[in-house]
Write the structure tokens for this entry.
Amino acid sequence: MNADLRWPLVLVALVGAAASIRLTARPIVQVRLPSAAPIDARSAAAASRRPISAESIAAIVSRDPFRIGRRPVLPAYDPLRLADQLAAPPPRPTLTLVGVMDGMSPSAVIEGFPGVEGSRVVRVGDAVAGLRVKTISNGRVVIAGTDTTWVLKVREPWKN
């Protein structure tokens, strides 16, 4: 290290050490809290307990904050109905597009409709077991249910 830089570094280190020793030995400013006035514990407890007027109590009791009409909630609580609501929804059907016939009124052959055995020929707008056929075109069929939309393509067993 260069001798020109050594003495300033030593001087800065000594000043820093002196300042640290000064601050730890005695703080620069003294802080004192004012003395607390003596408090009688009995008078403080009596002051915190204020009597509640009879009118206030009557107003509180006369109103029911949760049910103003004072009638039971409708529908009444039924644990069996709650168990029905928690039951799992029925499984979604597995629909398979067997074939499509394009033309003036396109139709499709679909397997897997719930409650229907085998295949079913459908046209645009037909509804089978709550499922409505939306479009039939180019080897594709779009079927809409209450919460699901299926886009089916013609199955080709030789392609796997």
User: Anything to note?
Assistant: The chain has four helices and seven strands. The two ends are 78 Å apart (CA to CA). The longest strand covers residues 131-137.
